[in-house]
Amino acid sequence: MTVLLNTVLILTGLGIFAAAIIYLVSQKFQVVEDERIGAVENVLPNTNCGGCGQPGCKAFAKAVVDAESLKELHCPVGGNAVMKQVAEILGIAAVERDPYIAVVRCSGSFEHRKKTSIYDGAESCKIAATLYSGDTGCAYGCLGMGDCVDVCDFEAMYMDEKTGLPVVIEDNCTACNACVKECPKNILELWPKGKKNKRIFVACLNEEKGSTARKECAVACSGCAKCFEACRYDAITINNSLAAIDPEKCTLCLECVETCDVRNIITANVPDEKIKHATDHRIRLEERARKKKEEEKLAAQAAQQQNGDATKQA
Amino acid sequence: MAMRLNKHKTFKTGGIHPHDNKLSAQVAITPLSLPKMVTIPIIQHIGAPAKIVVQRGDIVKTGQILATHEGFVSSNIHSSVSGRIGVIEEVMDSTGFKHTAVNIRVKGDDWEEAIDRTDTLVEEIKFSPKEIVSRIMEAGVVGMGGAAFPSHVKLSVPEGKHIDHLLINGVECEPYLTADHRVMLEKPKEIIVGIKILMKALGVQKAIIGIEDNKADAIEIFQQLLKNEKHIGVEALEVHYPQGGEKQLIQALLNREVPSGGLPADVGVIVHNVGTTYAVYEAVQKNKPLIERVVTVTGKSVKQPSNFLVRIGTPVIDLLIAAGGVPEDTGKIVSGGPMMGKAIADLDVPIAKGTSGILLIPKDEASRSEVYNCVHCGKCIEACPMGLEPYRLLIMSKKGNNKRAKEEHILDCIECGSCSFVCPSNRPILDYIRLGKTQLKKQKSV
C-alpha cells in the first residue's frame, strides 16, 4: 500500500514540478504572433499555389501584415474580393487589380503543323525541349505533352486531343502563374481577363521570317503588318516578324482581327457579329481616308494645272 | 557475371557491355564525291559561335576561312569546298536546334595554295610549342570524338598544373562506329607524328594510346611502329562501355581518378582522340584546316556499311545514298553512336566536325519500351561509371529539386546512358538527369 501511495505522490510531485517549469518557460519565451496573420490566413483561399510569389498562404499573410500597403501584394486566386477582405482586416486601403487569365499563345494544331518527326522520349515537354526544337518544323510552338496541365492545381487546363494544344478553362483559371513558369516554350502567358471576359491576343510566337514560318506552320504569324496598319491606337508592334498586342493600349475595337489572313489574332468571348461590325467600320474608315486622299490629290493636280495655265498665259 | 579471362586493363566503376556490332570495321575509308551544296554551321563546337567574315555572293576556295573564333573557347570555321556563298540562314543541325549556317554552292574543287595536299609523311616538327597551339587554333581543330571541344583550349594548360601524361583515345567504345578504327589502320604513321606534336606542345615525356581489344589489328600496327619509341606506348583495353569517356580512360590506363567537377589536367593528364590527333598532324604539318572527317555510315539493314571521308557540311542524305540508300525498315536515324548519339529529324542536316557516324536503326529496335515503376534493383547504380545514384537523381530532377541533385553530384554525369540501358523497368533515367543538368546550368548562367 505504501509503495502505491509513494508512487502516486512522487509522480504527482514530478508532474506539478514539470508543469511549473513548462509554465515559467512558456511565459519567459512567449512568442506573440500578430492575431491579424491568423485572420488574414483564414480569408485566403489556402491553396498554397504560390501564385502571389510567396511560398504559401501563411507566408503571404505574414507579408501582407508586415507590408504598409497592398500595392505589391496580390492574391491572384482570391482576386479583388479576397484582397478587399484582407484590407478590411488590416485597416488599410484595398488596391483593385484587373484580373488576369492564362492564354495559349500558339494556334499550330495538328492540321496546321505537319509533324516532321516522332518523339519517343520521356513524356515531358521540358525534357523534349532540352533535346530538340520540336516535332514539327516550328521551333517556337507547343510541344503538346501537357506539362502545363500536369502542373495546374485548379483543374483549369486540359489537352485538346483534336488540336494537340492545351485549353484553359476560363472559370477555373486563377492566374496562379504555375503553367507559365512550367512551359519551356513560353507558350502560356498571363493576360488581362478583360471587360466582360473579352480579350484579344496574337496566338503565335514564331519569330522566323514570314516565308519560313509559314512553311513550318500554316497559321504562323508572318509579320505582314496588316494588323499593325489597321490599329489606330498603336497597340500592335511588329518585332522579328511577329506581331504583339499591348493589352494596356488595346481598346478591344476589334478592327485588326479580320485583317489577319490566318486569323491568328485570337479573340475570346466576342460574338462574330461584333467582329464583322468592327471590320465594316474599319473598311468604311479606310474608304473614307482613301477618298479624302484622292480628293486631295485631285485638288492638288487641279491647282498645279491652274498654276501651269497661269504661267503659260503669262 | 561471366568470368573474364581477359587480362587487359579497364576502368573499375560501373560500365556496361553492349554488343559492339562493328559492321564496317573491314571497310576502307573512301572519299565521298563532292556534294552540290554544303551547309556549314558556324557553331560546331563547345563555346562561343564563330563570327562570319564572308558575305552572300563571295567566291571561296577550299580551306578558306568562313568565320573566325570569338573569344578563346571557340573555333575557326573554314570552307570545306570551293564555290559561291549562298544564303546565310538558320538551319537545323545535328543538335536538333536551329543555328546560323553558311550555304555554299559547290563549283569545282579549288584549294587554297598554302595547303599541302600530298600524301608524303612530314615527320620533322619544326615549330615551337606556342606555334603549334596557334596553328591548331587557326585550323579550327576540335575534339572529334563527339563533344567537339576546341583542341587549342585543351593544349593551353592552366598555370600551376603539371601534365605528365598524354593519353590518346583510340577506344571507340560506342557500338557500330568504326571511324577512329579505320583512321588508326590507315594513317598510323601520321597519328604517331600527331602524338609527337601534341607531346611537344604540352611538354610531356610520356604518351599512351589506349585501344580496346576488339581492334586487335590496330593494336598490332601501333605495337610494330612503336617498337623503338621509348616515350609512346600502346595499351590494349578490355571492351567496356563507356571507356572512351576521358575520365574512364584515365582510370583504365593510369588508375587515377579525376576529382568531382575537375578536369583531367587536375591529375596531370590530357586526353585527345585519335581522329583529333590526325587532324592536328594535318593542321600543323600540312597546313590543312579541319574541313573533312571520317564518318561511319552503318546499321543492321544498311546495304553497304561504310566509312566515308566527308567534307564538313555535306548533307546526311548524300552519305546515305552512297551507302546504298535508306532501308525500308528504318525507324530512326542517329547522328553519332547508338549510346550517346542523337536522332535527327531531317535528312538535310549537315555533317559537323563532331559527327563520328550516322546510324540507321531498324523500326523494331528504335522505339522505347513501356515504362514501369522503379523496383529499386540498383542496377543503374552498379552501371554508373561515375559512381552516382541515377534512380535518385531521376526523382530529384522530376520533382524540380535541383539543389539536392547538385549536392548528389548530378553535374558529374557524363550522359553515357548506361543507367537507361540496364534499367529493367525502362525508365527514362538519363532524360531526367539531362533535364536536371540543363536547369542547373541555366540557373548558373542567370
Describe the structure.
The complex is a heterodimer of chains A (314) and B (446). Chain A has 10 helices and 8 strands. Chain A has helices at 2-28, 35-43, 57-66, 79-90, 125-131, 147-151, 178-182, 210-216, 226-230, 272-313, and strands at 100-104, 157-159, 166-168, 188-192, 199-202, 236-239, 242-245, 265-268. In chain A, strands 1-4 form a two-stranded antiparallel ribbon. In chain A, helix 2 crosses helix 3 and helix 2 runs antiparallel to helix 4. The longest helix of chain A has 42 residues, at 272-313. Among the domains of chain B are: 129-285, 3-Layer(aba) Sandwich (Rossmann fold), CATH 3.40.50.11540; 379-445, no CATH class. Chain B is globular. Chain B has 446 residues and is an alpha/beta fold. Chain B is built from 14 helices and 17 strands.
Write the layout of secondary structure elements.
The complex is a heterodimer of chains A (about 325) and B (about 450).
Chain A: H1 2-28, H2 35-43, H3 57-66, H4 79-90, E1 100-104, H5 125-131, H6 147-151, E2 157-159, E3 166-168, H7 178-182, E4 188-192, E5 199-202, H8 210-216, H9 226-230, E6 236-239, E7 242-245, E8 265-268, H10 272-313
Antiparallel strand pairs in A: 1-4, 2-3, 5-8, 6-7
Helix pairs in contact in A: 2-3, 2-4
Chain B: E1 29-31, E2 37-41, E3 51-52, E4 59-60, E5 65-68, E6 77-78, E7 83-92, E8 98-106, H1 129-138, H2 151-155, E9 165-170, H3 179-186, H4 188-202, E10 206-212, H5 216-225, E11 232-237, H6 246-254, E12 269-273, H7 274-285, E13 292-298, E14 306-311, H8 316-322, E15 330-335, E16 342-343, E17 357-362, H9 363-366, H10 379-383, H11 390-398, H12 402-407, H13 418-422, H14 429-445
Parallel strand pairs in B: 1-14, 9-10, 9-12, 10-11, 13-17
Antiparallel strand pairs in B: 2-8, 3-5, 4-7, 5-6, 7-8, 13-14, 15-16, 15-17
Helix pairs in contact in B: 1-4, 3-5, 4-7, 11-14
